[in-house]
Design brief:
The protein is an alpha/beta fold. Helices cover 30% and strands 26% of the residues. It has one domain (14-296): Nucleoside phosphorylase domain (Rossmann fold). The strands form three sheets. Strands 7-12-11-8-13 form a five-stranded mixed β-barrel, surrounded by four helices. It has a two-stranded antiparallel sheet with strand order 1-2. Strands 9-10 form a two-stranded antiparallel ribbon. It binds ligand LQZ7MJT6 and uracil (URA). Ligand LQZ7MJT6 binds next to strand 7. Substrate binds at residues 207, 209.
């Protein structure tokens, strides 16, 4: 790694010191199994995204990028797939799926952070590599989040605790953002844009679409909403950024959200491109992050 800093993952939960045993229920990893836990000690990058398939392909791609040499028959040095989530580890890179939306994501992140602490990981970077709708941004462009707003336009991840609303501030490491942006090359067939990300609880009404199963507003309301987002310097919409940036900040892990635009919401409701093009768009974010990881590992 280029940096000589040494930041162990240390979770701000004193109750964890007093558990006899602990089991990551949704990842299906027993934290008292030292053989499994020790496999994660070298993790420096955790890359997350919605689906298991995408995370498996991502791990294989990043494994090639960093010349990961698998031992035995497996293409990974650890992997799991269960009813909820899937994870694929290639050396210092662990790719994990999170499903749709912040409730699904936050369960996975709590357990992932506990695994990183138990494995005594240091200097970990978390990157969500996803898809999004652009706001005046054309498909294929990669948007790196400079902040995330709740559906109420606030810079928080809103959740609840003991029946009370909890607002966790979202925070972005601009060094990481700038370093990721700097990984674009002139010959790339895509642009990289920095901007705020609007994080919603729903894909249809939550993102101002007219084509959900019900809709109580007009096309003019939709236009005004999308214009408002643009004026707030929002450049993309997705469903996990606020929780990623707030939860990582809360536990002291640096994080970024890097998403490929698959539809410009000022032009259309849903993606209109072919499946092959959509796949190529998703790869743009992956290419950028792959270069960043190589650079950070001095490869
Ligand atoms: O992981 P991806 O990029 O697929 O996540 C985005 C945000 C929602 O989870 C989902 C909606 O289609 O796509
Ligand atoms: O428009 C979009 C595209 C991907 N993901 C979203 O949440 N919204």
């Amino acid at each position: 790694m280029a940096s000589t800093s040494h930041h162990p993952v240390m979770l701000p939960n004193k109750h964890l010191d007093h558990l006899d045993s602990d089991y990551l229920f949704h990842l299906d990893i027993p934290l008292n199994d030292s053989e499994i836990v020790s496999k994660f000690h070298n993790v420096k990058f955790v890359c997350i995204g919605g689906t298991a398939n995408r995370m498996e392909k991502l791990a294989l791609h990043l494994g090639q990028e960093i010349n990961f040499q698998p031992t035995g028959n497996s293409r990974f040095d650890y992997s799991f797939t269960n009813e909820r989530y899937s994870g694929f580890k290639v050396g210092p890179v662990f790719c994990v799926s999170h499903g749709i939306g912040t409730p699904s994501l936050s369960v996975m992140l709590h357990e992932l952070f506990k695994l990183l602490q138990k494995a005594s990981c240091c200097d970990v970077t978390l990157i969500r590599i996803g898809t999004c709708g652009g706001i005046g941004i054309s498909p294929g462009t990669v948007v790196i989040s400079t902040g995330a707003l709740t559906s109420g336009f606030e810079p928080f991840y809103t959740t609840s605790s003991l029946g009370k609303t909890l607002k966790l501030p979202t925070s972005v490491d601009m060094n990481l953002v700038n370093s990721l942006q700097g990984c674009r090359r002139d010959e790339d067939g895509f642009q990289v844009v920095l901007g705020k990300t609007y994080c919603t609880e729903d894909f249809y009404q939550g993102q101002g679409r007219l084509d959900g199963s019900f809709c109580d507003y007009s096309k003019a309301d939709q236009d005004a909403f999308l214009r408002k987002l643009y004026d707030l310097e929002v450049r993309n919409i997705e469903m996990e950024s606020a929780a990623v940036l707030a939860m990582a900040h809360k536990v002291g892990i640096r994080a970024a959200v890097v998403c490929s635009v698959i539809v410009d919401r000022l032009q259309a409701e849903l993606p209109t491109e072919s499946r092959d093009n959509l796949q190529a768009f998703q790869n743009n974010a992956i290419v950028l992050v792959g270069r960043h990881i190589r650079q950070r590992l001095n490869l």
